[in-house]
Amino acid sequence: MANPPLPSDDELIPRLLASDENAYTQVVAAYHGLMVHLARAIVGDAIADEVAQEAWVAVLRALPKFERRSSLKTWILRIVSNTAKSRLRHESRTVNLGDALEETPIVDPSRFKANAHWANPPAMWHADTPDALLASTELRRCIHEALDALPPLQRAAVTLRDMQGLNMEDICKVLEVSESNGRVLLHRARSRIQQAIEELEEK
Amino acid sequence: MPSCKDITEHGSDYLDRHMPWWKRPGYWMHLLVCVHCRRYIEQLRLTIETIGRSPDAAPPVVKTEEVQQIVQQLKQSAKKPANKPRDI
To answer: Residues of A with CB below 8 A from B67's CB?
Structure first.
């Protein structure tokens, strides 16, 4: 569905507060796909739609108290993130949301010598462009599986940054993490996918 | 100058230009002299671009009927007395 350009937050928010049906339609058309995308990253495919719909009701209820410290889009995505995290905690009390503070190194330590320089450096890949990499069905599946295997907050960070193009400041607001933790989440996610590609390229 | 392991720990900060200014010269110097780390960083850059163009990167398409259904739910919800909203 091709959406017309969305009016500014200054124009939209009073109309949403006045229950203007056209304004509802415009924001839902503009943001629902992004909301489901983020919800999928945190809770998985099965309940992502439900989480996004639940988040819309929460958005509407909380809108009178929206303090405009971020854009409407960032604030809506933050509500999706909170709704998804609550849902995840409810479904499984032991879930590991993000392991931002885990101490494990980015690259397997056995690949470095005692002086922390490469013992087993990265080999050349067969492909050197995204298109060439993605031409392989096996590699597309490999990336999909690597994304699926990430902890929820790492998957959310990579979804928001590398897929939706949000800046780091907004990502940290959406996920309610510090900037340093946000960067760690993102780098760990990217590195795990890089490692998955590397393993396939070395076969 | 940072070690190769340091280079791998901060690759995203370097590529995203989030690295503090005082760390950049050492990082850059290391990349100048270390072919392995240049390859590592190039592969990280390629990974990031590939993630952004993978089929998983596209948000789901929302059909007009689905938009209308959610809008109707929101209208119903707006008519109901609100619970005390959470302070956002």
So the answer is: 1, 25, 28-29, 32
Q: A-chain residues within 8 Å CB-CB of B26?
A: none
Q: Which tens digits make up the pLDDT trace of A9-46?
A: 999 999 999 999 999 999 999 999 999 999 999 999 99
Domains A9-91 and A109-201 share a fold: no
What token pair was written down for A13? 């928010």
CATH of segment(s) A9-91: 1.10.1740.10
Q: So what's the ipTM on this one? A: 0.91
Query: In one letter, which amino acid is A127?
Result: A
List of residues 6+ apart from B58 with CB closer than 8 A: A163
pLDDT tens digit sequence for A92-127: 755 566 555 566 788 999 999 999 999 999 999 999
Of A33, A40, A109, the CB nearest to B61: A33
DSSP state, residue A118: B
Contact A144 B56 (CB under 8 A): yes
Where in A99-197 does DSSP place strands (E)? none
Q: Does B67 touch chain A (CB under 8 A)?
A: yes
Fold held by A109-201: Arc Repressor Mutant, subunit A (1.10.10)
Closest alpha carbon within chain A to B53: A130
